[in-house]
Write a structure and sequence with these properties.
Layout lengths: L5 H17 L12 H5 L3 H22 L4 H6 L5 H22 L10 H5 L7 E2 L2 E2 L11 E6 L4 E6 L5 E3 L2 E3 L7 E4 L7 H6 L2 H10 L15 E6 L1
Antiparallel strand pairs: 1-2, 3-4, 3-8, 4-7, 5-6
Helix pairs in contact: 1-5, 3-5
Length: about 230
């Protein structure tokens, strides 16, 4: 005896549903969620079935909308109300097939150590210990400070930071900026202990010129904070 496949089971369920509609029987739609567990179909088989049910749905819509005489004649054993129920059934089958035919690709894990191996930075400055640069990867906010020029940098990213060589990637150039820190009443230690929005507010409060944040990280910089 040839074992049923998910295709033969779905086709049988569809034929039975059509016959129920013809005989004025139940219009309750069968539960399909356990079919994948029972029959363990390949993704490509589900894709092929999806194409078949796309075509079936197109034919049913053609009959309902009376766009094709051949389709009207082919489905004339069901009135429009019953065709509407059948359309709902086929759309459910399509949704089931579509959801279970998608290939879920495993996101490759980023080797953070390799990403940051060329980054040069200060271990400490003004009593503040630098964070590990690996912590920057994937974060959305990053603050660093150039101890030589006394400039503080605020970076923002929608998608999460990356690092290429010694340069920060994926930051929003419109939302990221730099300012001279000399006029701040806060110490660098207090900045590190502040929340990320409080740091931004303090930088905006400073009346000095807004400078471009280039993303470059060098050996004069301490990596203050990420969030």
């Amino acid at each position: 005896m040839i074992q049923d496949t998910i295709g033969t089971v779905l086709n049988r369920m569809t034929d039975e549903y059509i016959e129920n509609l013809r005989q004025n029987g139940s219009i309750r739609k069968p539960n399909m969620k356990n079919l994948v567990r029972v029959y363990k179909p390949a993704k490509r088989d589900m894709k092929e079935l999806l194409g078949e049910y796309d075509s079936l749905l197109e034919d049913i819509n053609g009959a309902i909308e009376e766009k094709d005489e051949d389709l009207i004649e082919a489905w004339d054993f069901l009135n429009k109300t019953k065709l509407g129920h059948l359309r709902d059934f086929v759309e459910n089958v399509r949704l089931f097939l579509d959801e279970n035919s998608q290939i879920k690709r495993t996101k490759r894990k980023i080797n953070k150590a390799n990403r940051v191996k060329k980054v040069k930075y200060l271990e400490s400055c003004e009593g503040v210990q630098s964070i590990n640069p690996e912590k920057i990867i994937g974060m959305h906010y990053f603050v660093c400070y150039n101890c030589k020029t006394r400039k503080i940098y605020f970076y923002e990213s929608e998608s999460g930071f990356d690092i290429k060589g010694t340069t920060l990637q994926n930051f929003n150039s419109q939302q990221s900026f730099c300012k001279s820190f000399g006029r701040s009443k806060l110490t660098l230690k207090q900045i590190q202990e502040s929340g990320i929005l409080a740091i931004r507010q303090e930088m905006e409060r400073l009346g000095n010129k807004v400078l471009e944040a280039t993303g470059r990280i060098n050996g004069d910089m301490i990596l203050v904070k990420v969030s």
